[in-house]
From TrEMBL:
Name of this protein: Cache domain-containing protein
One Pfam family it belongs to: dCache_1
GO CC entries: plasma membrane
Naturally occurring in which organism (per UniProt): Paenibacillus stellifer
Keyword Lipid biosynthesis belongs to the record: no
UniProt entry keywords in alphabetical sequence: Cell membrane, Membrane, Transmembrane, Transmembrane helix
Domain of life: Bacteria
Domain annotation Cache: ranges: 56-301
Record membrane topology: Multi-pass membrane protein
InterPro entries associated with the record: dCache_1
Transmembrane intervals: 29-51, 315-342
Localization: Cell membrane
Length: 401
Protein backbone atom coordinates (compact mmCIF):
# COMPACT_ATOMS: atom_id res chain seq x y z
CA UNK A 1 0.00 0.00 0.00
CA UNK A 2 2.80 2.39 0.93
CA UNK A 3 4.64 1.45 -2.22
CA UNK A 4 1.55 2.21 -4.27
CA UNK A 5 1.15 5.58 -2.55
CA UNK A 6 4.84 6.33 -3.18
CA UNK A 7 4.41 5.61 -6.88
CA UNK A 8 1.41 7.92 -6.96
CA UNK A 9 3.40 10.68 -5.25
CA UNK A 10 6.30 10.19 -7.70
CA UNK A 11 3.92 10.37 -10.63
CA UNK A 12 2.42 13.55 -9.27
CA UNK A 13 5.90 15.00 -8.83
CA UNK A 14 6.87 14.28 -12.44
CA UNK A 15 3.53 15.63 -13.61
CA UNK A 16 4.15 18.81 -11.68
CA UNK A 17 7.62 19.21 -13.19
CA UNK A 18 6.36 18.59 -16.72
CA UNK A 19 3.50 21.00 -16.20
CA UNK A 20 5.88 23.60 -14.83
CA UNK A 21 8.12 23.48 -17.91
CA UNK A 22 5.32 23.04 -20.42
CA UNK A 23 5.51 26.00 -22.84
CA UNK A 24 1.77 25.83 -23.42
CA UNK A 25 1.05 26.53 -19.76
CA UNK A 26 4.05 28.59 -18.66
CA UNK A 27 4.44 32.26 -19.55
CA UNK A 28 8.06 32.25 -18.40
CA UNK A 29 9.02 29.31 -20.61
CA UNK A 30 7.32 30.98 -23.57
CA UNK A 31 9.29 34.19 -23.05
CA UNK A 32 12.52 32.28 -22.55
CA UNK A 33 12.10 30.11 -25.67
CA UNK A 34 11.12 33.10 -27.78
CA UNK A 35 14.17 35.11 -26.72
CA UNK A 36 16.59 32.16 -26.93
CA UNK A 37 15.36 31.04 -30.36
CA UNK A 38 15.46 34.57 -31.78
CA UNK A 39 19.04 35.21 -30.66
CA UNK A 40 20.26 31.79 -31.80
CA UNK A 41 18.66 32.07 -35.24
CA UNK A 42 20.02 35.59 -35.84
CA UNK A 43 23.57 34.60 -34.87
CA UNK A 44 23.37 31.39 -36.92
CA UNK A 45 22.16 33.14 -40.08
CA UNK A 46 24.71 35.95 -39.85
CA UNK A 47 27.57 33.58 -39.05
CA UNK A 48 26.75 31.10 -41.78
CA UNK A 49 26.37 33.84 -44.39
CA UNK A 50 29.74 35.29 -43.34
CA UNK A 51 31.35 31.86 -43.75
CA UNK A 52 29.70 31.26 -47.13
CA UNK A 53 30.69 34.68 -48.49
CA UNK A 54 34.27 34.36 -47.25
CA UNK A 55 34.55 30.84 -48.69
CA UNK A 56 33.43 31.97 -52.14
CA UNK A 57 35.72 35.01 -51.99
CA UNK A 58 38.73 32.88 -51.05
CA UNK A 59 38.09 30.33 -53.80
CA UNK A 60 37.67 33.11 -56.37
CA UNK A 61 40.81 34.92 -55.22
CA UNK A 62 42.93 31.74 -55.24
CA UNK A 63 41.49 30.76 -58.61
CA UNK A 64 42.47 34.10 -60.18
CA UNK A 65 45.94 34.00 -58.64
CA UNK A 66 46.60 30.38 -59.67
CA UNK A 67 45.30 30.98 -63.19
CA UNK A 68 47.57 33.99 -63.58
CA UNK A 69 50.55 31.98 -62.31
CA UNK A 70 49.80 29.14 -64.71
CA UNK A 71 49.51 31.53 -67.66
CA UNK A 72 52.86 33.10 -66.83
CA UNK A 73 54.40 29.64 -66.56
CA UNK A 74 52.90 28.64 -69.89
CA UNK A 75 54.43 31.70 -71.54
CA UNK A 76 57.81 30.75 -70.10
CA UNK A 77 57.44 27.18 -71.38
CA UNK A 78 56.40 28.48 -74.80
CA UNK A 79 59.53 30.60 -74.89
CA UNK A 80 61.71 27.59 -74.09
CA UNK A 81 60.01 25.18 -76.48
CA UNK A 82 59.89 27.87 -79.14
CA UNK A 83 63.68 27.84 -79.02
CA UNK A 84 63.71 24.12 -79.87
CA UNK A 85 61.26 24.74 -82.67
CA UNK A 86 63.64 27.32 -84.10
CA UNK A 87 66.42 24.80 -83.56
CA UNK A 88 64.87 22.49 -86.16
CA UNK A 89 64.21 25.36 -88.56
CA UNK A 90 67.93 25.85 -89.10
CA UNK A 91 68.08 22.56 -91.00
CA UNK A 92 65.56 23.94 -93.48
CA UNK A 93 67.29 27.31 -93.70
CA UNK A 94 70.66 25.75 -94.61
CA UNK A 95 70.44 25.31 -98.39
CA UNK A 96 73.87 23.62 -98.61
CA UNK A 97 72.84 21.02 -96.05
CA UNK A 98 69.56 20.32 -97.87
CA UNK A 99 71.41 19.84 -101.15
CA UNK A 100 73.91 17.51 -99.54
CA UNK A 101 71.09 15.62 -97.82
CA UNK A 102 69.12 15.14 -101.06
CA UNK A 103 72.22 13.82 -102.82
CA UNK A 104 72.88 11.47 -99.89
CA UNK A 105 69.33 10.09 -99.76
CA UNK A 106 69.15 9.71 -103.56
CA UNK A 107 72.50 7.93 -103.90
CA UNK A 108 71.51 4.80 -102.01
CA UNK A 109 73.59 2.71 -99.64
CA UNK A 110 75.36 0.84 -102.47
CA UNK A 111 77.07 3.91 -103.96
CA UNK A 112 80.81 4.47 -103.43
CA UNK A 113 80.52 7.86 -101.75
CA UNK A 114 77.58 6.88 -99.49
CA UNK A 115 79.73 6.42 -96.39
CA UNK A 116 81.58 9.70 -96.97
CA UNK A 117 78.29 11.58 -97.34
CA UNK A 118 76.89 9.87 -94.25
CA UNK A 119 79.98 10.78 -92.25
CA UNK A 120 79.74 14.42 -93.30
CA UNK A 121 76.04 14.63 -92.41
CA UNK A 122 76.63 12.88 -89.07
CA UNK A 123 79.36 15.37 -88.22
CA UNK A 124 77.00 18.23 -89.05
CA UNK A 125 74.30 16.75 -86.79
CA UNK A 126 76.75 16.25 -83.93
CA UNK A 127 77.99 19.81 -84.20
CA UNK A 128 74.44 21.17 -84.23
CA UNK A 129 73.27 19.02 -81.30
CA UNK A 130 76.23 20.02 -79.14
CA UNK A 131 75.14 23.66 -79.31
CA UNK A 132 72.27 22.93 -76.90
CA UNK A 133 72.84 20.87 -73.76
CA UNK A 134 69.19 19.82 -73.56
CA UNK A 135 69.24 18.20 -77.01
CA UNK A 136 70.01 14.53 -76.57
CA UNK A 137 70.07 13.55 -80.22
CA UNK A 138 69.30 14.67 -83.75
CA UNK A 139 68.37 11.86 -86.11
CA UNK A 140 67.44 11.79 -89.79
CA UNK A 141 64.88 9.34 -91.19
CA UNK A 142 63.93 8.69 -94.78
CA UNK A 143 60.31 9.21 -95.76
CA UNK A 144 59.72 5.47 -95.47
CA UNK A 145 60.96 5.44 -91.85
CA UNK A 146 64.56 4.24 -92.13
CA UNK A 147 67.18 5.92 -89.91
CA UNK A 148 70.11 7.11 -92.06
CA UNK A 149 72.14 9.40 -89.76
CA UNK A 150 72.23 10.41 -86.08
CA UNK A 151 74.26 12.60 -83.77
CA UNK A 152 74.64 9.76 -81.23
CA UNK A 153 77.05 6.89 -81.67
CA UNK A 154 74.54 4.11 -82.16
CA UNK A 155 73.87 1.40 -84.70
CA UNK A 156 71.15 2.83 -86.90
CA UNK A 157 69.55 -0.54 -87.49
CA UNK A 158 68.90 -0.87 -83.73
CA UNK A 159 66.77 2.26 -83.61
CA UNK A 160 63.15 1.13 -83.10
CA UNK A 161 60.56 1.90 -85.72
CA UNK A 162 58.83 5.17 -84.98
CA UNK A 163 55.03 5.20 -85.09
CA UNK A 164 54.84 8.96 -85.52
CA UNK A 165 56.60 9.09 -88.93
CA UNK A 166 53.40 8.87 -90.97
CA UNK A 167 51.90 11.71 -88.97
CA UNK A 168 54.97 13.85 -89.63
CA UNK A 169 54.75 13.24 -93.39
CA UNK A 170 51.11 14.35 -93.44
CA UNK A 171 51.97 17.74 -91.94
CA UNK A 172 53.94 18.74 -95.06
CA UNK A 173 56.73 20.48 -93.19
CA UNK A 174 54.94 21.71 -90.08
CA UNK A 175 56.52 20.80 -86.76
CA UNK A 176 54.95 18.14 -84.56
CA UNK A 177 55.56 17.59 -80.88
CA UNK A 178 55.79 14.09 -79.45
CA UNK A 179 54.93 13.31 -75.81
CA UNK A 180 57.65 12.09 -73.49
CA UNK A 181 58.76 8.58 -74.38
CA UNK A 182 61.73 6.26 -73.98
CA UNK A 183 61.25 4.72 -77.44
CA UNK A 184 63.22 7.38 -79.27
CA UNK A 185 66.86 7.04 -80.28
CA UNK A 186 68.66 7.25 -76.92
CA UNK A 187 66.19 5.04 -75.03
CA UNK A 188 65.79 7.66 -72.29
CA UNK A 189 62.62 9.52 -71.39
CA UNK A 190 62.63 12.47 -73.75
CA UNK A 191 60.33 14.87 -75.55
CA UNK A 192 60.31 14.59 -79.32
CA UNK A 193 60.16 17.33 -81.92
CA UNK A 194 59.99 16.37 -85.59
CA UNK A 195 59.41 17.98 -88.96
CA UNK A 196 59.79 17.12 -92.64
CA UNK A 197 62.83 18.64 -94.36
CA UNK A 198 61.98 19.77 -97.85
CA UNK A 199 63.28 21.97 -100.62
CA UNK A 200 61.73 23.30 -103.82
CA UNK A 201 61.68 19.80 -105.26
CA UNK A 202 59.64 18.35 -102.40
CA UNK A 203 60.20 16.45 -99.13
CA UNK A 204 63.64 14.94 -98.55
CA UNK A 205 63.78 13.41 -95.06
CA UNK A 206 62.41 13.70 -91.54
CA UNK A 207 64.45 15.13 -88.67
CA UNK A 208 63.82 14.13 -85.06
CA UNK A 209 65.13 16.34 -82.26
CA UNK A 210 65.17 14.45 -78.96
CA UNK A 211 64.89 16.88 -76.03
CA UNK A 212 65.75 16.11 -72.43
CA UNK A 213 62.65 16.04 -70.19
CA UNK A 214 64.45 18.40 -67.84
CA UNK A 215 63.66 21.14 -70.34
CA UNK A 216 60.15 21.03 -68.84
CA UNK A 217 60.92 19.92 -65.30
CA UNK A 218 63.12 22.93 -64.57
CA UNK A 219 60.58 25.68 -65.42
CA UNK A 220 57.62 23.67 -64.11
CA UNK A 221 59.06 22.00 -61.03
CA UNK A 222 59.70 25.24 -59.16
CA UNK A 223 56.29 26.82 -59.80
CA UNK A 224 53.86 26.99 -56.88
CA UNK A 225 50.22 27.57 -57.73
CA UNK A 226 49.48 28.16 -54.04
CA UNK A 227 51.46 29.78 -51.27
CA UNK A 228 50.89 26.81 -48.95
CA UNK A 229 53.13 23.77 -48.64
CA UNK A 230 50.42 21.59 -50.19
CA UNK A 231 50.64 23.42 -53.52
CA UNK A 232 49.87 20.99 -56.38
CA UNK A 233 52.31 20.27 -59.16
CA UNK A 234 51.71 21.24 -62.77
CA UNK A 235 50.94 18.47 -65.23
CA UNK A 236 51.22 18.69 -69.02
CA UNK A 237 49.21 16.48 -71.37
CA UNK A 238 48.55 16.16 -75.08
CA UNK A 239 44.84 16.84 -75.85
CA UNK A 240 44.88 14.65 -78.96
CA UNK A 241 46.19 11.48 -77.32
CA UNK A 242 45.29 12.52 -73.71
CA UNK A 243 48.72 11.24 -72.80
CA UNK A 244 50.63 12.83 -69.92
CA UNK A 245 53.69 14.59 -71.31
CA UNK A 246 55.14 15.86 -68.05
CA UNK A 247 54.45 15.13 -64.40
CA UNK A 248 56.43 15.37 -61.19
CA UNK A 249 55.60 11.68 -60.75
CA UNK A 250 57.66 9.78 -63.29
CA UNK A 251 55.25 6.84 -63.31
CA UNK A 252 52.44 9.10 -64.57
CA UNK A 253 54.29 10.10 -67.75
CA UNK A 254 52.87 8.33 -70.77
CA UNK A 255 49.63 7.35 -69.04
CA UNK A 256 46.17 8.76 -69.87
CA UNK A 257 45.30 11.90 -67.95
CA UNK A 258 42.24 12.19 -65.72
CA UNK A 259 41.87 15.91 -66.41
CA UNK A 260 38.64 16.75 -68.25
CA UNK A 261 38.57 19.95 -70.26
CA UNK A 262 35.32 21.95 -70.34
CA UNK A 263 33.75 22.55 -73.71
CA UNK A 264 33.55 26.11 -74.99
CA UNK A 265 31.16 27.46 -77.60
CA UNK A 266 31.25 25.42 -80.79
CA UNK A 267 32.24 22.22 -79.00
CA UNK A 268 35.96 23.10 -78.86
CA UNK A 269 37.99 23.25 -75.68
CA UNK A 270 38.81 26.66 -74.28
CA UNK A 271 42.41 27.87 -74.37
CA UNK A 272 42.59 28.72 -70.67
CA UNK A 273 40.39 29.01 -67.64
CA UNK A 274 39.42 27.61 -64.25
CA UNK A 275 36.46 25.59 -63.02
CA UNK A 276 35.40 23.42 -60.10
CA UNK A 277 34.61 19.77 -60.57
CA UNK A 278 33.93 16.80 -58.31
CA UNK A 279 36.84 14.37 -58.27
CA UNK A 280 36.50 10.60 -58.34
CA UNK A 281 37.38 10.56 -54.63
CA UNK A 282 34.20 12.55 -53.90
CA UNK A 283 35.87 15.88 -53.14
CA UNK A 284 35.58 19.10 -55.14
CA UNK A 285 38.67 20.27 -57.00
CA UNK A 286 39.60 23.62 -58.48
CA UNK A 287 40.93 22.82 -61.97
CA UNK A 288 42.95 25.35 -63.95
CA UNK A 289 44.37 24.94 -67.44
CA UNK A 290 46.23 26.86 -70.13
CA UNK A 291 47.09 25.72 -73.65
CA UNK A 292 50.56 26.17 -75.10
CA UNK A 293 50.60 28.17 -78.32
CA UNK A 294 53.74 26.31 -79.46
CA UNK A 295 52.95 22.65 -78.79
CA UNK A 296 49.18 22.67 -78.31
CA UNK A 297 49.66 20.84 -75.01
CA UNK A 298 47.73 21.82 -71.90
CA UNK A 299 49.35 22.86 -68.66
CA UNK A 300 47.00 21.90 -65.83
CA UNK A 301 46.75 22.05 -62.07
CA UNK A 302 44.26 20.49 -59.66
CA UNK A 303 43.72 21.87 -56.16
CA UNK A 304 41.33 20.35 -53.60
CA UNK A 305 38.83 22.94 -52.42
CA UNK A 306 39.30 21.87 -48.81
CA UNK A 307 42.97 22.91 -48.99
CA UNK A 308 41.92 26.36 -50.15
CA UNK A 309 39.50 26.89 -47.28
CA UNK A 310 41.94 26.72 -44.38
CA UNK A 311 41.32 30.42 -43.67
CA UNK A 312 37.56 30.08 -44.14
CA UNK A 313 37.55 27.17 -41.69
CA UNK A 314 38.88 29.51 -39.04
CA UNK A 315 35.85 31.70 -39.66
CA UNK A 316 33.63 28.63 -39.33
CA UNK A 317 35.24 27.78 -35.98
CA UNK A 318 34.61 31.35 -34.86
CA UNK A 319 30.96 30.97 -35.92
CA UNK A 320 30.62 27.86 -33.76
CA UNK A 321 32.18 29.67 -30.82
CA UNK A 322 29.85 32.63 -31.37
CA UNK A 323 26.86 30.27 -31.46
CA UNK A 324 27.90 28.66 -28.19
CA UNK A 325 28.50 32.06 -26.59
CA UNK A 326 25.18 33.40 -27.88
CA UNK A 327 23.39 30.36 -26.46
CA UNK A 328 24.91 30.95 -23.02
CA UNK A 329 24.14 34.69 -23.15
CA UNK A 330 20.59 33.98 -24.35
CA UNK A 331 20.05 31.60 -21.44
CA UNK A 332 21.27 34.18 -18.94
CA UNK A 333 19.26 37.04 -20.45
CA UNK A 334 16.24 34.79 -20.82
CA UNK A 335 16.38 33.91 -17.15
CA UNK A 336 16.60 37.60 -16.28
CA UNK A 337 13.59 38.31 -18.51
CA UNK A 338 11.63 35.58 -16.75
CA UNK A 339 12.47 37.06 -13.38
CA UNK A 340 11.58 40.60 -14.47
CA UNK A 341 8.44 40.01 -16.51
CA UNK A 342 7.07 36.51 -16.06
CA UNK A 343 7.05 36.46 -12.26
CA UNK A 344 4.78 39.53 -11.84
CA UNK A 345 2.42 38.21 -14.52
CA UNK A 346 2.19 34.87 -12.75
CA UNK A 347 1.50 36.55 -9.41
CA UNK A 348 -1.29 38.57 -10.99
CA UNK A 349 -2.72 35.41 -12.53
CA UNK A 350 -2.60 33.65 -9.16
CA UNK A 351 -4.41 36.53 -7.49
CA UNK A 352 -7.10 36.45 -10.14
CA UNK A 353 -7.48 32.72 -9.65
CA UNK A 354 -7.79 33.20 -5.91
CA UNK A 355 -10.32 36.00 -6.37
CA UNK A 356 -12.43 33.80 -8.60
CA UNK A 357 -12.71 31.16 -5.86
CA UNK A 358 -14.66 33.24 -3.31
CA UNK A 359 -15.14 36.48 -1.30
CA UNK A 360 -12.68 35.51 1.41
CA UNK A 361 -9.70 36.63 -0.64
CA UNK A 362 -11.37 39.36 -2.63
CA UNK A 363 -10.99 42.15 -0.07
CA UNK A 364 -7.19 41.81 -0.51
CA UNK A 365 -7.54 42.49 -4.21
CA UNK A 366 -10.12 45.18 -3.71
CA UNK A 367 -7.67 47.13 -1.60
CA UNK A 368 -5.20 47.29 -4.47
CA UNK A 369 -5.17 49.91 -7.19
CA UNK A 370 -7.04 47.57 -9.55
CA UNK A 371 -10.76 47.10 -9.05
CA UNK A 372 -11.93 43.70 -10.23
CA UNK A 373 -15.61 44.16 -9.39
CA UNK A 374 -17.12 47.42 -8.13
CA UNK A 375 -18.16 47.16 -4.48
CA UNK A 376 -21.67 47.99 -3.46
CA UNK A 377 -22.33 50.84 -0.98
CA UNK A 378 -23.02 48.35 1.76
CA UNK A 379 -19.62 46.74 1.22
CA UNK A 380 -21.22 43.48 0.16
CA UNK A 381 -20.30 41.92 -3.14
CA UNK A 382 -22.55 40.51 -5.70
CA UNK A 383 -20.77 37.42 -7.10
CA UNK A 384 -21.39 36.10 -10.55
CA UNK A 385 -24.19 33.67 -10.93
CA UNK A 386 -24.04 29.98 -11.81
CA UNK A 387 -23.29 30.78 -15.44
CA UNK A 388 -19.73 31.82 -14.42
CA UNK A 389 -18.89 28.80 -12.29
CA UNK A 390 -17.18 26.94 -15.16
CA UNK A 391 -14.98 29.91 -15.98
CA UNK A 392 -14.02 30.29 -12.33
CA UNK A 393 -13.09 26.65 -12.12
CA UNK A 394 -11.04 26.93 -15.29
CA UNK A 395 -9.09 29.85 -13.87
CA UNK A 396 -8.43 28.07 -10.61
CA UNK A 397 -5.37 26.18 -11.91
CA UNK A 398 -1.85 26.23 -10.54
CA UNK A 399 0.30 28.75 -12.37
CA UNK A 400 3.81 27.95 -13.52
CA UNK A 401 6.80 29.84 -14.83
Amino acid sequence: MKRHEGMIETKKGWTSIVRRFNPRKSIGIKLFLFFFTSVFIIVSVLGWNAYRISKNAIVEEVSDSAEQTLNETRKNVDLILGGYRDFSVQFIADADFLGQLRAFVSSGSNSLDYLDQQKAITSYLQHTASSNEMVRSVTLFTLDGKAVASSVDKTLSSIPKQSWLKEAVKTKGEAIWLPASSTFVTGQSSIGHARVLRDYSGPIAIVLVEINSDALSKPLGEVKLMSSKSSPDITVFDPETRQVVYSSLAEEVGKPTSFVLPEAEGGNSALQGAFTMEHTAGQDNLNIYSQSSVTGWYLTGQMPIRDLLSLANRILVFVYIALAASAVIAIILGYIMVRLFAKPLVRLKDRLNEASMGPSVFPYIARTRFAIWPSRPSGRLKWPGPLHIKSRKRLAQPSTL
